[in-house]
Structures are given as C-alpha cells and as structure tokens.
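Title: Prediction job returns without error message
Component: structure pipeline
Severity: low
Priority: P3
Assignee: unassigned

Description:
Job completed but the reporter wants confirmation the result is attached to the right record. Sequence as submitted:
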Amino acid sequence: MSQTLKKEATVAQAVELGLREDEFEMIKEILGRTPNFTETAIYSVMWSEHCSYKNSILWLKTLPKDGPHMLVKAGEENAGLVDIGDGMGCVFKIESHNHPSALEPYQGAATGVGGINRDIFTMGARPIAQLNSLRFGNIERDRTKWLVKGVVKGIGDYGNAFGIPIVGGEVAFDDSYNTNPLVNAFSAGTIDTKKMISATAKGPGNPVFIVGSSTGKDGIAGAAFASKDITEDSASDLPSVQVGDPFMEKLLLEATMELSETDAVVGMQDMGAAGITCSTCEMSAAGEVGMEIDLDKVPTRQSNMLPYEILLSESQERMLVVVQKGKEDTVKKIFKKWDLHAEEIGVVTDTKRIRYYMNGEQVGDVPADSLVLGGGAPQYERAYKEPAYFQEFKKFNINSIPQPESLKAVADAMLAMPNIASKKWVYEQYDSMVGTRTMTTNVPSDAGVVNIKGTNKALAMTVDCNSRYVNADPEIGTMIAVSEAARNIACSGAEPSAITNCLNFGNPYNPESYWQFVGAIKGMSAACLKFKTPVTGGNVSFYNQSVINGVEVPVFPTPTIGMIGLLADKNNLMSLDFKSKGDLIFLIGNYKEDISSSEYLATYHGVKASPAPYFDLDEEFRTHAVVKDLIKGDRINAAHDVADGGLYVTLVEMSFPRDLGFDIVSDSEIREDAFLFGEGQGRIVVSVSEDQEDLFLEHMVDSKVNFTLLGHVTKGKLVVDDEHYGFVSDAKEIYDNALGKLLED
C-alpha cells in the first residue's frame, strides 16, 4: 500500500465533508481499513443526498415505472426513453440547480441548462426543446429581483447560444422561496432507438477517455453543497458553483452526435454531480467492472491540482467515454475536428474496484458498487409526521370571506399579480424559434409542441406544479400537479406518455418536511397510474430551506412534473385562442363553490391557510378523455384548462391572441367570486363554432361528462353577467406589463 493510502482521514474530516460519524464507520467496514482523505472525499460526494438519494430511494422505488411506451425505465440510464413510433424515441429529464442559483444565479441557472442537455445527448439523442420551472421569493425584495434577472439571463444566454429552443415553462413567486429559489431545467431530445448509448462500462482492457473541456476548481464538492442548508455563511461556498460555456457545449454535442454514428463507443456518461468520481464509479458498477484512472492525464485548467480536487470538480462540458479497444484513433480524430480534448486517462479492469493514481502513486482504491445508488450507498427510512397546520387548513370556511363589492376591480387586480400576469418579460429573453421545430410560438397552446421533422408527428411537453396546493395537501396537491400536466397535454391534442419529476423539499431529517415528501410520492403514484404515465426518472432536491434566527424555514414542497405527450397527427394540434366572434363558449367538467388555495384567496384576501382546491381524479380523467376525442373529431376550435386564477383568467388568456372577448353568465347558485376566481380542478374551457355545435352537443351528451354553456365570443368586450369588465386591450395592457414593472421598479 502506498504512503498516501496510509494517511488516514479522521472522523472530523469526514463530518466536515458532509458524512455522518456512523457513515464513516460504514466506510471503514467496507474498505477493511480507515480511508484516506481522497477516499473519504469520494464517499462524501457519492453518499451525499444529491447523488445517492439515501433519504428518498425507498419511496422512489414505489413510483410506477411501467407503461405502454417505456423503452428505458427510471434508474437504468442518464434519462428516460419512451417510444414515439417508427423506430424513434424521446429522451427527456428534469433536474434542479437550486443551491448554485441561490448564490450565483447566472452561472447556477446556466450550468443547470448545460447539465440537463448533456444528460440527453450523452445517450445519443439530439436535444430539440427545453422547458424550465422557476420559483422565487417576494418580488418586491431587491434580492428576489437580482435572482430573477440573473437566473433568466443565465438560462437565456446558455440556451440561446447552445441553439435549443425554450418552448415553455412556469415562473411563480412566494415568500417561502425568499432565500432558496428553485431552478428546475427540463430537456427533451429525439433518437434512433437502435443507436442509444448506454452509461455502462464493459470489456476489461478497453480504454477510458475524458472528452470535452478541461478540469478546473469550479464546482468542487457541488453535490455535497447541494445537500446542505442555505445559510448566511453560504457565500463561502461559491467555489461549489460551476461555470459554463455554451459554445463548448455545442461543440461537444456535435462531436457526440458524430461519435454515436461509429462503433467506437462502449459506454458514455456526462460528468455532472461529483464529476469524474461519479462517472467512473457509476459506469463501472453498472457494468460490474472496475477501472484504473491516471489523474495526471486529466487536462486541467490550474496547475498543481490535488487528487481530490480533480476527482470532485464539477467543471462543465465534460464526459467519460469507454472506447472499444483499437478504436482510439476514431475518437481522437472526431474530437480533434471539433477542437475538444479527448484524452485517454485509464482502462477498464475486471476488479470491480476503482483505483486512482497520481504521480505514479495510488491515491484511492474503492469498490465501485459501494458508492452507488442501489449498491452499497446507505438507504434510510426517515420518520415522518403530519404537521399541525394540515388539520388547521381544513377548518377554512368560504363564508368567512366577504364577497368584494367590485368583482371587476378584483379581475384587474388578479391580472396584475406576479403569479398570474404574463411572463413575457421572462420568455422574450429566450429563443423559442431556433431549430425551426417549435409549433406553438405563434399558435399558443397549453403545452409546448415541437415538430418531429420528416414525420406527421409532434411532441407535446409541459412542466407543472402549484406548490401552494402541495403545501396545503401534499397527496392531493401532487395528484393535481400530474393531472394539470396531463390536462395541458390533452388540451394541445396530444396523448400523455410519461413523466419526469424534480422533487424539491426541505430537510429530510425534519419529520414534517418528510411527511410532505411521502404524501407527494403517494399522490404522484396514484395520478400516474390513472393516466398511464410512468415515472422515467428525475431528481430529488432536499435541503431547500433557510435557517433564520436558528429556525429552519423550508420552501413550499414543490414536486415539479415534466410530462411528454405524443401528437400522432400534427393536424390535430389544438390552440387556446378564441377564433371567431359568435363562437359558443363551454366549460367542460364540474365546478364547485370553492376558493381554497386559490390565488384570489391567498393574494387578494391574504388568507394563506386553506385546504387544496376541489379535485376528483376520476372526473379529471374523464374530462381529459372527452376533450381529446373532441379535438380528434374536429368538434371544437379552442381548448384551455382552468388553472391559476380560475375561470376569468382562463377566458382572458383565450381572448388575447386575436383580441376577441367574451360575454358569459355565471351560475346563480354559487358565489360569483368563486365562479370566476376559484381554482377547482378538472375543468377545461372550449369554444365551438356554429357548424360544430350540433356534433359537439351530441358528443357531450353521449359522454356523460358535465358541461355548461357559458356564453359566446365577442368582438372585444369582456362581459360577465351583463357587467362590462372592459375591453381585451385594457386587460392585455395590465397582464402584459405587470411583471416587468415590478422587476424594474
């Protein structure tokens, strides 16, 4: 054994690196000796929550993974893969970059975009679309404005330069995110399913290459950093934030696409969290092999980097490639063409151990399986308990809220709320047209829809979660998140296929935070089974909280759902905009006298304590089914789901694209504010032309799904119960400019 391996790490060092004392003892038992500092650092990142899912894996295993379109299931590769027919597949995934974005919003968000795209093209798929889901604190705070501007610019600069369109997403604000914003990035790509590249190392004697950018000290221990609280001292963790280069990523994409056309690749994996450590260990464990890695051969940006710095660096735009022996020149030639590093740094062995060398000396020797999810990494079942607020929220009574004197004034106020107002200020910084695939830039739809060139098909995609609902009731709130995603897909004319998730929660050691997590998993399972949308994978992000005056304050639990759907016939793409004056407006689905957890209740009235809104999973499913049938049968000409802000906001959003208004009548049996602004689920507004009316009515009667005639489309007036709410142009002025004014004040 080398002198370096004899320099044993201490318990104090292990704890400083983020391990627990009992975990350090587990490592000693696995190795049969005390690890050195480098080995301890390796275990610290691989056993961090971010990499090992040690506090979530037992519940994640309960999520449904089988479905009619599944080709690669959760946990098998870098991302999920679903069949879209004709030998093609869609690779998609969502991941968080929350903690880096809280400290350095520009680079934190930018490298989140870069990382999620690499997960896609490392499998041999070409990314074709991106989405993002963003959460920020109180928009009136200077720090929130700084975070919003930095995150949006980071996403835009990286995504635009990389050349993949951003086709949708969501932005929400709540005080719970004041310290810890959420930045969840989604990417989808298409692939010839016969050409998928696996993240598995095979073949002892095969060379191991590092390709792409050089390795620096940025992002060191980023995985461990992502498993910590955000505190006043977190600024000292800035070296844990990676630095991205989108132009380098573009070169890496094209080189990888070219490489995927050869027979030189055995396996390949992105170097994301935990860098070289993660990719060498996970690829080896997947193939039940080992590796010997010479760290001297890794191209570095700084001189005299220590072994643990090279191993833990999360420098961007890098991948590990296991190459078929004898094909080394093929790899070198391709990457030289694209002016990228392609350095042979090691070899596959039959030992099932990873051995790292530096200056001719062994600096680490660890069994690969002991480091990875599903192998020797610890798995914990955490205690959980229902928080006291849960029952308190249920005590809410709508009769405690007085009806406002002027609902028109409420309507205008709603359109100006940050969570309702147009996110134009955000999306205008993104390129949605690059690649000429986006079908919904000028044809607004509830989901982003991307053309699959050379076919008659398209992909629909969305990201959804109302975290206020989840906070009120984690199980129902997460069922709603899945259902809203499916509703958006259905309204676009597509069929939901599968989901990926980004589970953003507080401290898993806090029983009340963990109760929220468990409830969310149960709700997600129920809804995914109902819609036959299995979970292909994703990301768990715990420790999204701040410690203020010694008190732990978690963010709203936010299980973001990214969903893919297949539009089998592009001619069935459905938009949300009213088409013609005189068209009839119908509401499909049930509605109740309910304002629970609505934006109206929480923001306009300032009442934060209420249960989740009305929801029935079976009703929801039937509503989606009938709307999909109506679209296929050409019975409607617009469809838009009722979501944040309620029915009134849905109607004005349908009015904006063509400057057409509406004249509707409310239900006299329920409160008018609940009718207009309540957020009871399972409802979709559709418009029907005169020549569609008879067939529409016939179809709806046969379906046994509840539907209501609301009124008709006008030339530009907004009318509710014969009261003039103004013109479309007035509402649009408020809606389009409110967010920008708040951010620029």
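Comment from assignee: result matches the submitted record. The CA atoms of residues 132 and 180 lie 17 Å apart.
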